[in-house]
Amino acid sequence: MSLIDLSGTLLEVAFIAYLVATLLIGGSIKSKKPDGAQNRANKWGRIAILVTIIGFLAHLGYFITRWIYSGHAPVSNMFEFTTAFGMFLVGAFILIYFMYRVTALGLAALPIALLIIGWAAMFPQEVTPLVPSLQSHWLTIHVITAALGQSILAISAVAGLIYLLKDVDTKKKGKQRFWLEAILYFLVLIVGNIVVSTVFNVAGYEAQYSYVDKNGIEQQIIYNVPAIFGMNESTTLTEGAMDPLIEVPAFIHGLKLTTVVWSIIAGTIIYILIRLITRRRIADMLQPLVKKVNLQLFDEIGYRSVLIGFPVFSLGALVFAMIWAQEAWGRFWGWDPKEVWALITWLFYAAFLHLRLSKGWEGNKSAWLALIGFAIIIFNLVVVNLVIAGLHSYA
Amino acid sequence: MKNVVCVCGHENPVGTKICANCGRPLTEEAKSQKVLDMKYDGSAIRSKTYNKSIIDKVWNFFSSVKVGVALIIITLVVSSIGTILKQEAFVEAGNEAGRAAFYEESYGSFGKLYYNLGFSDLYNQIWYLVLVAMLGISIIVASIDRGIPLHKSLKNQRVRRHESFMKRQRVIAEGTVTTGDSSNTIDAVEEKMKKLNYKVRREGKALLAEKGRFSRYGPYINHLGLIIFLVGVLLHKFPGIYVDESMWIREGETRAIPGMDGYFLENKEFIFETHDNDPTTAQIQQGVNAVAKNYQTDIVLYKQADDAVPGQTDQLEVVKEYSIRVNHPLEHDGYALYQMDFRLNELKEMSFQLTNKDTGVSLGEVAIDLRNPKKEYIIDENIKVELMEYYPDFSGFNNEGAPQTLSPNPNNPAFIFNMITPEHPDGEISFVAIQQTVEPTGDNTYKMAFSGIDTVNMSGLTIRMDKTIPILFVGGFIFLLGLAIGSYWNHRRIWIEQFENGRIRLAAHTNKNWFSIKKDLDAITEYAHLPQYIDQLDDEKETENDEDKKEES
Ligand code: HEM
Predict the structure, then answer these.
(1) CA dist., res. B406 & res. B96, Å (int)
(2) Contact B319, B303 (CB under 8 A)
């Protein structure tokens, strides 16, 4: 087996381990019998953590072997960066676990990590050579530290989600119930994206089109999903492939829009199926799992993870980024969209910390803020990389 | 204004919420709290004290954390607006009209509005700077407003606190020792607390154990770092502190370096290399067939001799030879030259034959250097070509019919020539662009017939010098240091008092991380057999046992 195949296998091992660990945690929490329930829960919980750690080590193995194989830190394209982000998220979960010894945190942390890794796998996975601006040690240091900081910050959203699952009354109609369900629906959309990409991939769907780009130059593009939205002035090249239903202007990327719409369609179908089969909201289904959660403790975990993550994020996403930008371009700051969104993330968490200084912004509100913070991080990863093109754009 | 006198006799400055001496709550608000607000216990905050003059009002405005948070959020939202469309700095258009046109053409009427509102250059707008400046002022004012009272309250801590203070702490305990003799309890606590690295002070049977006090200064240190950093950024606006120039230099050329007086640069060779990998999926999808591997300009840096006439190139001394690459700038004397851009096969020279339209006979050739065109090209005494106007990047005619140029780069050169020939000693005027000739009179005898081009590789370099870097570095360092101090350490305090009858009262406070202080409390509770503490904020119904019982029933 070559190094790169080994690397791929290790990633699969990690994925399966996280999946198993999630189920174990779910089981450990659900055990109901009065006699020794606490003990059993602890035992299963400990096994779950052990499996998580094994998964994490495999994940780390993927990262290191890929690094050795490609000769550069595997954080240089969407697949690599997102996979690494998933790894750091699990790492941050393990770290916080050993500080607070609460397995319930894994109930949200591991599924989110699974979704992130699964989503990452939908991007091309080949090793890509580095363009000159990426050939710098500072870049490696900057990206890894920033991703690490983001993943620790993300733990606050994990704690916040669990907090809200317990705290929000899902029996009563209201804004909180709506938004909580909306978040869970969004997670199902990611599953939808993974399902759609996988199905059409397995089916071998491929259609080629030519189009005219922003600069008026004719280009070609391959769709791996049936084209709902065509690129600007597109013509179908593949015989028998369907013509796009709707054509979009040049500043919109038809393929990306198509993928998004497909994901929404598939995700919504899955969501409706879940609702029809269980006859309950997803939040309702999850609520029994978090019944025993101590809200005070989860509030504190949320706050602590921001406190731990914020300095790491500041160091990686701002300070190291500035040092590298100074070295590569002679200016430590250039108002590139990615830079601006790092600043926005930083300002947001600064606001989060200051709000907690005043009364009334702990607990419930703080949990919502943590989720908004995570939304900003994900926006920065997805939208800024894929939609708002800048110097850092990966696609 | 009068001081507030506490029941214990201590005089506290106006605005104090908790008596500095005994800890009794002084205000009605504090008295009504189940758990005291311990931020600046025992000292007055200026903004909470004075609210008369206009200065007080401004001061109070900026010192408010609510205002601070509002400023942070506004900055955040406004900044995000600047990422909706490309900023002007990333638009390649030579002048204002070109940029305005770019936004309208690329993004329609939304783009036009965006441009007109100034969002296309958002981060350089004066109101954006004002916003950031207000944020800075807020940080300074709030830090002074709270930092000084905090420092005072931390320095003047009493060991013995009043019951009303103790009972209004979040974590408290009261009762008798659980087992054994209670005469040594406080000694045992002291011993154990010291083992746990607390600083312990005693007043008879009262004890204050404290740990990590320095971490309370963390936010003030990080705010100081931020301010130093912001000052460094502001200094960029002053002349002589910051140089940001760029230059295009052809292979084989030697040019003065803009912004770097007395220095010259020779471009020996520009090298462009690509990876020889098999195309990846992403490459195929995007129709790119090669990935760039290296952009490099091999240069020689020269310095003019000290006694040379400025601008003269004959007395140059070699300073160094270097290969400028991306991420590897040439650094010298505080300046740095960066590889930023390049043009392969750029039009360098265009040649024309001055040709008689009827006979096709040429009177001679004119070669025009497109970066440095001459005013006049003399073929012989009475044959010459005057270059009246030159449009390096011709983009069409405007409403008045005048030719336009997009940029100073010779991408699409166009010329207005005046051809002076024996037949026409006053000259004939002709507008010549690629594949296009316009003659104002329409009946010229001669034309400038295109006869050839010469191309060359060019390298685009940026010259930067930034004297504020050390300031930014110091600011950044102090910021991170303060951040770490405030985030990774916390301030824990435990008060214990034993009364005549042997009963024990305990209260504990930490500014963050209650989980860890409870672990410390567990340790001393067990070691010294103290009564079990309770967390007053833990809701009774949250306790796990209750939940379990409900589940069973
Ligand atoms: C983006 C800029 C800012 C950053 C990065 C920042 C950073 C911080 C951090 C990390 C803390 C500690 C928070 C905690 O431990 O939970 C803090 C505390 C604080 N900040 Fe800021 N801050 C900023 C702007 C401001 C502004 C504009 C104000 C003005 C009102 C302000 C006032 C305060 C105050 C009063 C504290 C509490 C200090 C204490 O605990 O004694 N900060 N700041």
Answers:
(1) 10
(2) yes
Q: Where are the domains of chain A?
A: 3-170+281-387, 187-280
Shortest Cα distance from B181 to chain A (angstroms)? 34
pLDDT tens digit sequence for A339-376: 999 999 999 999 999 999 877 788 899 999 999 999 99
Beta bridge partners of B292: B274
What atom in ligand 1 is closest to the CA of residue B218?
12
- A130: pLDDT strictly greater than 90: no
Query: Which atom of ligand 1 is least distant from the CA of B136?
Result: 27
Distance between Cα B141 and ligand 1 center (Å): 12
Q: Tell me the ipTM for this assembly.
A: 0.91
How many angstroms separate the CA of residue A124 from the nearest CA in chain B? Answer: 6
Of A111-120, A221-230, A377-386, B91-100, give the lowest mean pLDDT range: B91-100
* Nearest C-alpha neighbor of A391 from the set B90, B392, B24, B503: B90
Write out the two tokens for A267: 């995700």
Predicted local confidence at residue B442, as pLDDT: 76
**Averaged pLDDT for residues B428-435:** 87
Decide if pLDDT at B6 tops 70: yes
Regarding beta strands B4-5 and B11-12, do their DSSP bridges make them parallel or antiparallel, or are they unpaired? antiparallel
Q: Establish, for the pair of chains A and B, how many residue pairs have beta carbons separated by less than 8 Å.
A: 154
Least reliable range by pLDDT among A160-174, B147-161, B437-451: B437-451
- When the candidates are 3.40.50.720, 3.30.1280.10, 3.30.160.110, 3.40.50.450, the CATH number that belongs to B159-212+490-552 is 3.30.160.110
CA of B143 to the centre of ligand 1 (A): 8
State whether residue B32 sits within 8 Å of chain A by CB. Answer: no
pTM value surpassing 0.90: no
Of A322, A331, A351, the CB nearest to B464: A331
Q: Do B464 and A330 touch (CB under 8 A)?
A: yes
A252 interfaces chain B, CB cutoff of 8 Å:
no
Residue B489, token pair as written in the block: 């350490």
Q: Whose CA is nearest to atom 42 of ligand 1?
A: B139
Chain A nearest-CA distance from B381, in A, is 48
Within 8 A of B82 by CB-CB distance, chain A residues are 335, 340
DSSP states of A240-290: TPPPPSEE--TTS-HHHHHHHHHHHHHHHHHHHHHHHHH-S-HHHHHGGGG
pLDDT band for position B200 (50/70/90)?
very high
Within its chain, how far is the Cα of A167 from the centroid?
24
Within an 8 Å CB–CB cutoff, is residue A202 touching chain B?
no
pLDDT at B206: 92
Per the CB < 8 Å rule, is A348 touching B329?
Answer: no
